Structures
1.
Amino acid sequence: MKNPDVRRSCCWLACVLLLCACRSGTTSTADDALQVVQRWATAFDQSNVDAIVSLYAPDALFFGTGSKTLVSAPEQIRSYFEAALQKDKPRGAKLLEHSVRVVSDNVVIVTGLDRVSGTKDGNVYTADGRVTFVLEKRGAAWQIVHFHRSAVPAT
């Protein structure tokens, strides 16, 4: 190619195609990780302890809203959800506004605001919170490797 305009156009087109390919991969990575967060919310809604615990990596770090200490063992995560999900049924969880940060092809951070609900004495209550999920792709599966949720301050 001797024509500089044609060469420039080809370079521009190659750059656009490369950018689209990169964005597509990032979007797919974010979407794949967000599916785990959605499965987490569904398991919470169903008070399904086995399903929610299965989403956590064996070495996950966990700070639930009611955690007084850092939880770092699968049996402690199970105990937390056995207590939390077996009362005030039906339960619910919804991710409200959120942001997704793709750190790499294998690590995604999802952080934002959520709303959990429960039923006590026939009355539905809600509690807004700040939540962070760090997800890591291990093998073919995405797993939660870090979780933190805290209540939104009253003021």
2.
Amino acid sequence: MGIRTEEARALRWDHVNLRGDPNARRAVPPHVGVWRSARLHGETKTERSRRTLALPRLAVEALGAPQDMQAHECALAGEQWEDSGLVFTTQLGGPLDPANVRKMFKRVCREAAIGDGWTPREMRTSFVSLMSHRSVSIEEIARLVGHSSTRTTEVVYRRELRPVITTGAEIMDDVFRRLADRAGEAGS
């Protein structure tokens, strides 16, 4: 969903709603409130970084696993368990170290057979690029990822997914087809 690693590391269970409220006047989908960060003083990077994001079904299902795993780890740790309220924690319930997140991410990528040259930040870049590829406006993408302006979204994060830019050829084909149709109508 384009969340920064430091925002995910600070995500608390009290900001996660895996059920939503389908019976509300305007149905509320499952969502997360991105209101904190692992940055100094817990502040998000910018004011616009504070946002509430609806979750796709796969994320709702995936977030159920940490809840179950934490309950198991808490029972194993006993009095050593640190009840931080965080979604993503160490085996003792404490906050995750950024270097360990990167190591875990590399291990997951290796096990998924996509290589270990990826970084967590590239998930954010991929999210922005996929949104752009699906014709989501740059303003909406900037809102989703919490950028204070579209410039960062465009320059730093958005990558062209199509290896060949086809827009010009598609438009010109349409123009030439219309001209040929008119010429054919005129000759009839």
